[in-house]
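General statements about sequence and structure are easier to judge against a single worked case. For one protein, we set the task of working out the structure tokens from the amino acid sequence alone. This step matters because it turns folding into a mapping between discrete strings. The amino acid sequence and the backbone structure tokens for this protein are reproduced below.
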Amino acid sequence: MNNSVSGFSKLSKEDKINWIANTYFSNPEQAVATIKQYWNSDAKLQQLHDEFIENTITNFYLPMGIAPNFLVNGNYYSIPMVIEESSVVAAAAKSAKYWSTRGGFKASVVSSEKIGQVHFIYKGDEKKLEDFFIKIKPKFFEATESITKNMQKRGGGILDIALRNKTQELENYFQLHVTFQTKDSMGANFINSCLEQLAKTLKEEAQENSSFTDEEKNLQVVMSILSNYVPNCIVRAEVSCKVEDLAEKKLEYPHEFSEKFVQAVAIAEIEPYRAVTHNKGIMNGVDAVVLATGNDFRAVEAGVHAYASRNGNYSSLSHAKIENGIFTFWMEIPLALGTVGGLTSLHPLVKMALEILGKPSAHELMQLVAVTGLAQNFAALRSLTTTGIQEGHMKMHLNNILNQFQATKEERMAIAKHFENNTVSHASVVELIENLRK
């Protein structure tokens, strides 16, 4: 394709599909058939999905699985997970079962504040701006009263507004740094609406301030937007038990295992190359539940990785120790989640996922997401420090390879028997399939 397309968004859904098929595929009819194969047969439900985003042509399916037996704060949960990667759900479920007989997971919300900022340029006397801010601060709360009143009834709203001088980093740059409590909603729209009203009030009051010069009155609002960095919206997840209680059939030497495990975490705390992969494993669990419950996994990812770098170096989110014969594995991560608003009241499977979780509050969901991430991390570290990560992962991946080559039932049985005592690799599976078919 060498030309741009004009008016694509105004085309009908059918015309969009035909244009895509005829422009990009050598077999347009097959492309159209594949696209329509993933439509929902319920026209009303399909329309609901079509309207989630723009220029929709079809649905992109991801598997939704369940990791049962999560004992969290004394209650059992089955955790819905949406992810495409083999072994993630199995690993989470295995960790959940393992820890359910060792006291389960403990989780708590440490804090739940969210941040939004009005970024503006002010050229003038800094002391006059500080005095002006103190004077008009009550007006900010008054101006947003119509937006915040319903949130205040639920115990939320604007907690504080601060003026931040950032001129050392960028010339003439200041912020209104605003702290929010949004209760069970993620609160993005609420926060952004409040910020835009604060920006409007800031400009209007500056124009009326007699102590400002004309240049000082014309301060420039650059943008008003929430932050996905939420270092004061923190949840803690933890497991612990006596070192000897770590033992089971495949963990015959718990003291050796626990010491090696702690060392593996310590490496991730000081080595960024390892920490990125270490934390990616945590996010396998976190993102899968965030997706299943209709929350914004991109925002969560950005905030979590910023938090992992908060001390100047990218580091492990999780930590482990052995003290007085007790093994403890824990992490604290920032999670801004909601259980009302957005897709939570629209997407049928999101509603089902929340039902499976017992219709949790935002704080409860934060805890369940965090323990899933910790369970996933434990499973990965357990494999890495014992059998190695590939043994379990490649056995799970075997099914994908067999599907790729459309293996028959007889071929699958023969292949499964062969790899009971042999290492799985993509090349070895392909070779075996070819030999069976000769």
The first strand starts at residue 64 and ends at 72.
